[in-house]
Specification:
Layout lengths: L6 H13 L3 E3 L12 H13 L4 E4 L2 E3 L14 H11 L4 E3 L1 H7 L10 E5 L4 E5 L2 E7 L8 E5 L5 E5 L1 H10 L1 H4 L4 H11 L5 H11 L2 H13 L4 H9 L8 E2 L9 E3 L4 E3 L4
Parallel strand pairs: 5-7, 10-12
Antiparallel strand pairs: 1-3, 2-3, 4-5, 6-7, 8-9, 11-12
Helix pairs in contact: 5-7, 5-8, 8-9, 8-10, 9-10
Length: 267
């Protein structure tokens, strides 16, 4: 952590704060009133990044704090880091998984990383102190979102409450979503925070065959309107195979032929 600013560092912060810049790219300072040479710019940005005063998004691209932090150390929040990274890649994203489950009160565990579906980047990234798990998906799998404003005024895109429940079933292995996701859906339906029609619509748009079958079996158990169940049933392809209700357990138990699901809660 860098405590004392040198002349160039002080000039840098005076410049970015005067211009109200939140990001800086290689070349910005050579063409500015600072008139730095490329080598000077590179070394300055590297020193500031190593000192924890700015955050490296990628090579040659940095996030800058809105004001010089007290104590001389700064890190962006999750929304700032994710927005900078995905906007730089000219992509779209939505925060999902553990972060969405926590936001909507399904899970009280506070995640130590940011999970996000996006259409540009796959893998783990770290910007400042923010750890991110980036899950690249097709454009058609992005949607059903809401915009959230953080305490600092940054806006982040989250999967909606309904979409997060469908994701718990669809991406169960990544998010540890089954069987606990079934309980979340039951509670949300009972509390009328989500509707069965919205769950069906979201499942048909963003789920796969396994998601449709499991959601159909769940909603049938919950006594959902028959017309909604038929919408899910019509989307299924004919098959004689059975899938487990809880994928991590042996496929033993009673079965439902309509949905092709083995209820293996006690297996």
């Amino acid at each position: 952590m860098k405590q004392n600013l040198g002349r160039l560092e002080a000039q840098f912060f005076a410049y970015v704060q005067m211009r109200k810049l939140r990001t800086v790219r290689s070349g910005d300072l050579t063409a500015s009133v600072l008139c730095l040479k490329p080598n000077q710019e590179r070394k300055l940005l590297s020193r500031l990044s190593r000192g924890g005063l700015i955050a490296r998004v990628r090579q040659g691209f940095y996030l800058v704090p809105p004001r010089l932090p007290l104590g001389g150390a700064w890190t962006p929040n999750g929304a700032e880091a994710l927005n900078a990274l995905i906007q730089d890649a000219k992509g779209r994203y939505q925060v999902c998984g553990a972060n969405a489950f926590n936001r909507y009160g399904s899970d009280d565990q506070i995640p130590n990383r940011v999970y996000a579906y996006n259409n540009r980047i796959s893998g783990d990234r770290k910007i400042g102190a923010v750890d991110m798990a980036l899950i690249k998906v097709a454009d058609k799998r992005l949607g059903d979102t809401e915009e959230v404003e953080t305490e600092g005024g940054e806006k982040a895109v989250y999967a909606s409450r309904v979409r997060s429940l469908v994701d718990a079933v669809y991406d169960w292995s990544r998010f540890n979503g089954i069987p606990r996701g079934y309980d979340w859906i039951r509670k949300e339906l009972k509390a009328k925070r989500v509707g069965a029609a919205d769950l069906v619509k979201c499942t048909l748009r963003y789920g796969d065959m396994g998601t449709i079958r499991r959601m159909g079996a769940l909603l049938e158990r919950e006594g959902v309107n028959a017309a909604l169940l038929r919408k899910l049933e019509r989307a299924l392809k004919p098959t004689s195979s059975l899938i487990p209700w809880i994928p991590s357990r042996p496929k033993r138990g009673t079965f439902n032929r309509r949905w092709g699901v083995v209820f293996n809660e006690r297996a």
